[in-house]
Amino acid sequence: MTGPQARIRELFAGAGVRGWLHAVRIDPDGPGPEVAVDPDGRVVMASVYKLPLLVAFCRAVDEGALDPVEPVRLLPEARTAGPTGVSAMSDPVTMSLRDVARSMIIVSDNAAADALLDAVGLARVHDVLRVLGLHATTVRGGTRDTYDTLVRDTDADTLQDAMSRLADNDRPADPSALDPLLSSATTGRDMTRLLTAIWSDTAASPAQCAYMRTVLGQQVWPHRLAAGFPHPAVRVAGKTGTLGPLRHEVGVVQYRGEPPVAVAVFTRAARAEVHLPAVDAVIGSTARVAVGALRV
């Protein structure tokens, strides 16, 4: 086997991961050529579920069901745990709904995500999956639900204890939160289809799609998809996902003056350490191979 697929598989193997990748050029008249490595394999989404939630929020705004500037008060005792954003703060925080959505994407804020899901409702997320043809994607709940499952399945007393057990290579855990049959899951092809809809102004109104593209372009993490394109002439917008051995990113890469390319890279590492720089880096390096093969 030769070509970009072979090189991508080599890179995944060298990083010690099982990997799934789908990349497709977003041409003006529809989807263009693609590069695919197991693009229809279902993978647990982790925080990538926040992307269809973002779309559901924007469609609710279009319908007049939600006011994007409505203030939301996030109280410490009711917030989902997490290392970033409102999750990491000590005091009550008040934000507009659209800035709650922004924090959910740009720093993967768990508290913001669950607050937005409470406002939007899971039924609207399911409508997005149905209307946009994401038939291989299932969203079963938010981060709060995933954490509750982890604590239960690892027989832990606290979330911190559950996370420690998940990262313990000497006592490997296999909670249902890591099973794509039992947790929120998707495929590379479904996520590039969703990204293509956002970049083509068909996921929601043109104004809301522009907002989503802006927010995805503000994501702060440079160590995965963006690491493969460290050039000022390339714009990268994306959403990461991390849970135990899972490290993902889906996004859009665009060279100046060229069509954008939607890319989804999912990985499951052989080891469970909290920090695996080689795995983060392989998301960028495999995306670079795929995008390079699709440039015009």
From TrEMBL:
GO molecular function annotations of the record: hydrolase activity
UniProt keyword annotations, A-Z: Hydrolase
Organism for this UniProt entry: Pseudonocardia humida
Protein name per UniProt: Serine hydrolase
Superkingdom, taxonomy of origin: Bacteria
Domain Beta-lactamase class A catalytic: 32-267
Source lineage: Bacteria, Bacillati, Actinomycetota, Actinomycetes, Pseudonocardiales
